[in-house]
Write a structure and sequence with these properties.
By secondary structure, this protein is mostly beta strands. Among the domains are: about 10-230, Immunoglobulin-like (Sandwich); about 280-465 and about 475-515, no CATH class. Helices cover about 0% and strands about 55% of the residues. It has one helix and 45 strands. The protein has a 24-stranded antiparallel beta barrel. The longest helix has 4 residues, at about 10-15. The radius of gyration is 27 Å and the shape is globular.
Amino acid sequence: MRKRNLLVLLFVATTAVAQAPPAPPPITIRRAEGAIRIDGDLSDPGWKNAATIDKFYETQPGNNVQPKVKTIVYLAYDDHYFYIGVRCEDPDPSKIRAPYVERDNVIGTDDNIAVFIDTRNDKRTAMELRVNPRGIQGDAIFNDGNGNEDFSPDFFYDTAAKIDSGGWSAEYRIPFSSLRYPDRDVQTWNIMVWRNYPRDFRYAIHSAPIPRDSNCLVCHTMPIVGLSGLPHAGHMVAAPYVTGEQTEIPSGDLGTPLERAPFRKETGLDVKWTPTANNAIDMTVNPDFSQVEADVAQITVNQRFAVFFPEKRPFFLEGLDLFDTPLQVVYTRTITSPQWGARTTGRIAGSTYTLLVTQDRGGGLTIIPGPISSFFAPQDFKSIDAIGRIRHDIGRSFIGGVFTDREVRDGGHNRVIGPDFQWRPTGNDEIHGEVLLSSTQNPNRPGLSPAWNGASFTSHALSATWNHQKQSYDYGLQFNDLGKDFRADLGFLPQVGYREEDGYASVFIDRQTDTNGDLIFRRSSPGVLLLGRKNFQAGPVLHLAEEYRVGDRILTENYLEYFAQIDPSRRFTRVGINGFAGQRIDFANGRVGHGATVSLTSTVRPVDKLTFDGILSREWLNVAGGRLYTASVERLKTTYSFSAKSLLRVIGQYVSTDRNPALYTFGVRPHNGSFLGSILYSYKLNWQTVLFVGYGDDRVLTENNDLAKLDRSLFFKISYAFQE
């Protein structure tokens, strides 16, 4: 077959009109006839007479055509486990991309298998379990309602893989206690297997055909029948932990010698109990919510609103997909320091639910939103926080509801409640909607923040979206209306007090006004997506006459936004660039300047066990009189894996901002910056049985442009999961 060297536009690449083949028939699974040892070898007697899936389809770049390589899947089960074996044949095993990586870093640059299992038989969400040719895991929840693939959740399961002269093999052993399924003797599940095969192109090979104009993935999973006599209840996991930290801090002002602070130790316990196969109860006492890896810094010099960081903490992750609603009223990182927590998640009478209650010791920040900017107020108070969500499926559609409640000790609250829905009238159309009411009473703490003035108010929020998808194009419309006093203190909604209408086809059009009808924001931005070999993607977007309200004026900017990414080889696995160039508004001082942002990312792997991940971002803005500011982020993460379970990681991150105070209308420091350095040894038997030992060094830029020591620490964590 002649190689394709020309780049193609996305709407050209997807104009093939061939209909997808019919869906495969149900798979009848049987109990294993012998033992299965999880070692990557498919010759065990337990695989004899296992159910097989041997018909696969290349869905990208081909349109449900015969794949270039053969894949066979084997399925079996016994009294305690669900087994999956996968054989991936390869004409040239030397080209298999099989690096040693951290858990959840099993991504599209490398060979891997992803298994989607829908154990509730609703074809709405699926547990996604990945494995690469080294046996390293990646796990997620795939939500068909919005296409979100969330790698925050972690599950107990065992994997192993082995490379040989004809390709590679992988085995899964999944405890039934890790799965949530109906409480009945005979089960019907659904499954799909996706093989990622990156060579000249990134080939996607699925065990079921996927039409190009489909607006779902889990809906195409294949039924599994024959499962019976599965365990019903009673599984428990208790995971106690111990942490210790020895910190050194300045003895006086910044820059003075460091002296040792008292040794700090913490203990706590996480417990998960499944009273039925379809319900889980989580309890925690003094949970360890420390971050093992620091968040990647983002440039925020000229931002109007707060920036988002993903959730990583185990206690919040059961049923996390339920919190995906059109308006993000649940953002669990707003719960900063829980003293205890309890949660129940499950399914009853055809409805899926979750209810979470914690006592938060505070210490974080609360987003105070507005129509043209947001700011933070210290959350220096204790509270009881509760979050509830229920969703009832009706075919491929659903109706649901959500509530959040923060009750502040000594007075104050924020409560949000309302329904939402998704309706899929056809296989090409989706309609989402949500209506919310909020009731807020600010704490009466004016000494802590002017925002805490004791005022009370109520407000509303509304969101409605329609998407239409076809083989050669897609388009959609959206409407949002958020009242000026709407607040979701347990969510992430940094902008309120506006109405917005937007739509997209080949041009994205967006318009925001405040509650008085005055313009906040308006844009019209045409763009295209280019695709090519080596997973090449590029997307230039023109922002023409983009208008913003800044103070009492409307300012206009024109600029080019761009991104490009390519996966060159198994050693130079990915390189990308994104940014903008042209006119940009200086929101702090209310004027238009010229500037640019350039962000470079790369992943280099000299050998399979050593990986370098680099980020270099730089942003600048020029105004009348010269350079207003230059901001940069430089980050290098180096990871060496001793095995699939053990690694050493070194991170260095430098963030800096240089400003010209003479060009500002208010006082600013000419230099700001910080350095973060860390070394971590990690051993993970599973996601809750871990050993971490590390060293951290934080420094901050002084007025003399020197990096002064802020703190230095040694730390460890030991956690072990006892399973009953």
